[in-house]
């Protein structure tokens, strides 16, 4: 359709070119059109095909006979170009206003280039393009930047992501990933429960904070395995607490990905039955993000949980833009107020005014308010005076391993 080489034939020709020109330095360029499916959805597949041909023509017009180029798949293209022929400034200028028009319809395409400077010439050509493709992830959030280079920092991230992902199964099996419990107290300072937070004690890297692995697993879908593991760990703890801490609950997180990959109601209900615990003891935290897609189906799911006796918490309330709109319809029992409201609250009246009204709103809606991120006694006292019911934060305790949480319970009692 485009008149360009197909993927495999392009890769063959690139391999031949690299082998035949050992002294020439090359850039591997991966071209991707952001949200191209929208073009097909809005303007039709004929215009979409026309747009792809326009991109192919643009590539032809900007390369020499020393380059090899082709269409990788769909809306992605590849070019192997001598590094001294790569003019980033000109390309940025072209891409800043890349408009496709057939004389009737005009549409601006958002095209990004990932660039990998070929260092390992013996590597498979597909790997070179994978690295170039990966570089694009660092550019797509930048409105004015359309070209991103694969560098050592990105390489280290790729290596880290691959290693940590490959370690996950063993980490779950051997309890390297385990729950740390952050106490939740009432307005009398009594511990009423805890939030179970995933922490990884890695045999090579030691204690790994969540930012080292959670975002990766949220992106690649492996967060589902982590969440399942944490749900089971929480149920095991609640089972062990029978007769000892019957008045305590544990909150666990349900990630947005969980709704896509598994039947969360079925999975969690089975665990509660397996460990013979009351559903209300295992509180379920969802974020506003969960509701951004398929809100109707999500609300049905939350309704199912509540009918089964679970308590549903909305985490990070106020961190997004649609919380109030969702709140009027969303079936939740607890509102976890985002700690961002607490920043500079002693000097700035606005955050505390907002907090006061959210607490009042939740009370009128018969929803329990829980403020997380409480770090000072003053914040705790102010929130108590406002009528906030539950509290969580470093003022009380950081997340603790199970044995230290038990000690904390004894001391706080």
Give a description of the structure.
The chain is of the alpha/beta class. It folds into two domains: 7-150, Alpha-Beta Plaits (2-Layer Sandwich); 163-412, Alpha-Beta Barrel (TIM Barrel), CATH 3.20.20.450. It has helices spanning 7-20, 36-43, 45-61, 88-96, 125-136, 152-173, 214-220, 223-240, 256-261, 264-274, 295-307, 323-327, 349-364, 377-386, 402-412, and strands at 26-33, 68-73, 76-82, 99-101, 106-108, 111-117, 147-149, 177-186, 191-202, 206-208, 249-253, 282-287, 312-317, 334-337, 368-372, 390-392. Helix 2 (36-43) crosses helix 3 and helix 8 packs parallel to helix 10 (264-274). The model has no long low-confidence stretch (mean pLDDT 90).
Topology, please?
Elements: H1 7-20, E1 26-33, H2 36-43, H3 45-61, E2 68-73, E3 76-82, H4 88-96, E4 99-101, E5 106-108, E6 111-117, H5 125-136, E7 147-149, H6 152-173, E8 177-186, E9 191-202, E10 206-208, H7 214-220, H8 223-240, E11 249-253, H9 256-261, H10 264-274, E12 282-287, H11 295-307, E13 312-317, H12 323-327, E14 334-337, H13 349-364, E15 368-372, H14 377-386, E16 390-392, H15 402-412
Parallel strand pairs: 6-7, 9-11, 11-12, 12-13, 13-14, 14-15, 15-16
Antiparallel strand pairs: 1-3, 1-6, 2-3, 4-5, 8-9, 8-16, 9-10
Helix pairs in contact: 2-3, 8-10
């Amino acid at each position: 359709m485009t008149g360009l080489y197909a993927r495999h034939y392009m890769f063959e020709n690139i391999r031949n070119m690299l082998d035949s020109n050992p002294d020439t330095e090359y850039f591997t360029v991966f071209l991707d059109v952001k949200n191209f499916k929208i073009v097909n959805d809005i303007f039709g597949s004929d215009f979409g095909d026309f747009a792809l041909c326009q991109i192919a023509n643009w590539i032809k017009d900007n390369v020499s006979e020393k380059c090899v180029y082709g269409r990788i798949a769909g809306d992605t293209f590849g070019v192997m170009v001598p590094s001294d022929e790569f003019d980033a400034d000109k390309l940025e200028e072209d891409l800043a206003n890349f408009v496709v028009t057939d004389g009737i319809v005009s549409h601006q395409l958002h095209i990004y280039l990932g660039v990998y400077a070929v260092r390992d010439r013996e590597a498979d050509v597909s790997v070179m393009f994978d690295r170039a493709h990966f570089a694009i992830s660092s550019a797509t959030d930048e409105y004015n930047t359309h070209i991103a280079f694969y560098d050592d920092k990105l390489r280290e991230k790729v290596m880290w992501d691959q290693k940590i992902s490959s370690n996950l199964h063993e980490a779950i099996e051997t309890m390297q990933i385990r729950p740390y419990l952050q106490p939740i107290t009432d307005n009398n300072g009594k511990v009423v429960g805890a939030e179970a937070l995933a922490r990884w004690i890695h045999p090579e890297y030691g204690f790994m904070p969540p930012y080292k692995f959670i975002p990766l697993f949220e992106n690649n879908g492996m967060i589902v395995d982590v969440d399942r593991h944490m749900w089971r760990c929480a149920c095991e703890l609640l089972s062990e607490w029978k007769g000892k801490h019957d008045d305590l609950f544990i909150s666990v997180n349900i990630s947005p990905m969980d709704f896509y990959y598994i039947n969360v109601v079925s999975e969690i209900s089975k665990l509660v039955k397996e460990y013979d615990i009351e559903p209300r003891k295992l509180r379920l935290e969802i974020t506003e993000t969960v509701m951004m897609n398929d809100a109707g189906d999500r609300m049905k799911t939350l309704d199912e949980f509540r009918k089964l006796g679970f308590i549903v918490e909305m985490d990070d309330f106020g961190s997004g833009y649609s919380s109030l709109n969702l709140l009027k319809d969303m079936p939740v029992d607890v509102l976890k107020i985002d700690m961002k409201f607490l920043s500079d609250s002693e000097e700035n009246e606005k955050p505390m005014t907002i907090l006061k009204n959210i607490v009042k709103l939740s009370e009128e809606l018969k929803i329990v308010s829980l403020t997380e991120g409480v770090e000072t006694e003053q914040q705790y006292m102010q929130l108590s005076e406002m009528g906030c019911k539950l509290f969580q934060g470093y003022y009380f305790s950081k997340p603790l391993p199970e044995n230290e949480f038990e000690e904390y319970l004894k001391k706080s009692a």
